[in-house]
Each structure stands twice: as C-alpha cells, then as structure tokens.
Specification:
Elements: E1 11-15, H1 20-31, E2 35-40, H2 43-57, E3 61-65, H3 71-82, E4 89-92, H4 107-134, E5 140-146, H5 148-151, H6 157-165, E6 171-173, H7 179-185, H8 193-198, H9 207-218, E7 231-232, H10 236-240, H11 252-274
Parallel strand pairs: 1-2, 1-4, 2-3, 4-5, 5-6, 6-7
Helix pairs in contact: 1-2, 1-9, 3-4, 4-6
Length: 275
C-alpha cells in the first residue's frame, strides 16, 4: 500500500511504544524509513522492543523509560529528542483502562486513568507542540481514542471521560486485542472474543489495519485533514451503542472476580517496573 522510503527523514515519537498497538505502529513507521522514539514506564520493555525492531527492520529506534503522568519527565525527554533534531510526528498511544461499575470506582482508580490518558496526552503534545512553534517547524499528531467518546461507555467511565477530553485531536479505533487491554477489559475471555460476538463484521480489528491508517495520517499526503475523529471499529458502535453494555448482566460475584484479576495483573506490572 505504501511506497518504500515513504518516511525517510521522518522522526516519530510513539508513547506506549514498547507493546501492543504502539509497538505495531512503530514497526510500520520504521519499515518505511522513519527514525523512531518510543517511551513507556517500563524502560526494559521499551529497550527490548527497540532491539527487536532494529534487528527485524534495520534503522534506528530510541527507547525512553518515562511516566507520561510526570510533566517534568516528559519535557526532559522531548528536550533530549529535539536536541538531535525536531520530531516530525507524534503518536499519543499510551493509555490505561479497566472495567468497573461506576459506583465501585475510587478517586484513586479514576485518577489512575485520567492522569495517563488526559493529562499525559496533554503533557506530551504540549511539550512537542511548543517546540514546533519555537522552531517554526511542524509535524503531525495522531492520538488513539475509543469509539465510546461518541456514544458513552458504561463500565469504563474514566476512560470515556478522558478520551472525550482530547477527542478533537484523536482518532478512534475499535477492539484490536492486546495483552494489557484484553486482561483489564475482558478478564477471563480470549482476546477479541467479545468483539467477534457483537461486531457486524464478526471479528476484531487487525494490527495491520491500524498500521495502515496511522501511516496514512502520519504521511505528508493528507495535511489538510485535521481535528478529525476517525472511527475504525467494524461498525460496532453503530450496532451496539456502546462496547460494554452487556456487562450490566454481570453478578456481584463476576464483578469481584474481574476486580481480583485486574488487581493481580496490576501488581505483576508494578513488580516488573521496579525490577
């Protein structure tokens, strides 16, 4: 679909680039000639991904261990990147989410999502954007959103609110299964199983479909496209009105099992970050 060397000379930062969607987009950009910068809270994961991608594709991938909830750390990272040349693109991909009945949410749980999705996305975009302005340069920003910014999201209220806050500069993707997303939003289910049940196309999204859309948006061929929310969900939001309405049938025991599963996964991730 895209010609070789399309991104030659491009320098793109992908937040949350060590795993899942961020890793997939980074791989595609790298294969088309871009120099890639990835960041995440787990620096070792980002470094391993950088090594893996460079071995497979060649080129350059730089890894940073940064918590985007820390505005100072974000600014320092972006300053270091710009010291060797301006970025030409930013992909706001880093996020967090979990399912919960709204009445069960704690302030800490709400802040955990809002601080990453809303605050973190702003911090990175602001740090990059102000340097573009100061240097009289420009670039493209692609932000990964969710379909429920348009129709609400029961049981994922912190995410729906946070994504809605940045929807003017984001695009929306449907369910493209990743380990982190699936285990926190569909505990106990196979990745993509719920999407296959309710999606008009009968399947979940594929990584290459997001790669292709992100590549198109990051290219020089569509500069006139701006501020748009692009839904790529196989028609799921049109068919169901929201991704998690089916969970209203869950019992208290099922919600408790889901909370226990998510808590165990969070504790495992914290242990890996401190290792």
């Amino acid at each position: 679909m895209f010609k070789d060397g399309l991104f030659s000379g491009k320098r793109i930062l992908v937040t949350g680039g060590g795993t899942g969607l961020g890793k997939a987009m980074s791989e595609r950009f790298l294969s088309l000639g871009a120099e890639i910068f990835i960041c995440g809270r787990r620096k070792q994961v980002c470094e391993a991904t950088a090594d893996e991608l460079m071995k497979a594709q060649g080129g350059k991938v730089h890894a940073f261990g940064v918590d985007i909830r820390d505005a100072g750390a974000v600014d320092a990272m972006v300053e270091e990147i710009f010291a060797s040349g301006p970025l030409t693109g930013l992909v706001n991909n880093a996020a967090g989410n979990f399912i919960s009945r709204t009445q069960d949410l704690s302030p800490r749980g709400f802040d955990a999502i809002a601080n990453i999705v809303m605050h973190g996305t702003f911090y990175v975009t602001h740090a990059v954007g102000k340097r573009w302005i100061a240097g009289k340069s420009k670039g493209s920003v692609v932000s990964i959103a969710v379909t429920w910014v348009r129709n609400g999201g029961p049981f994922v209220v912190p995410s729906a609110m946070s994504k809605a806050a940045i929807h003017a500069m984001t695009m929306s993707t449907g369910e493209i299964p990743t380990e982190g997303m699936s285990k926190r939003l569909n505990p106990g289910e196979d990745p993509g199983a719920r999407s296959a049940r309710v999606n008009p196309m009968g399947r979940s999204g594929r990584m290459e479909e997001l790669q292709n859309l992100a590549t198109f948006l990051m290219s020089d061929g569509c500069d006139w496209l701006t501020g748009e929310l692009i839904a790529m969900d196989g028609g799921q939001a049109l068919a169901t009105g929201g991704n998690f309405y089916a969970l209203r049938e869950w019992s208290d025991a099922q919600w408790q099992a889901a909370r226990d599963s998510i808590k165990a996964l969070n504790e495992r991730d914290r242990a890996q970050r401190s290792a």
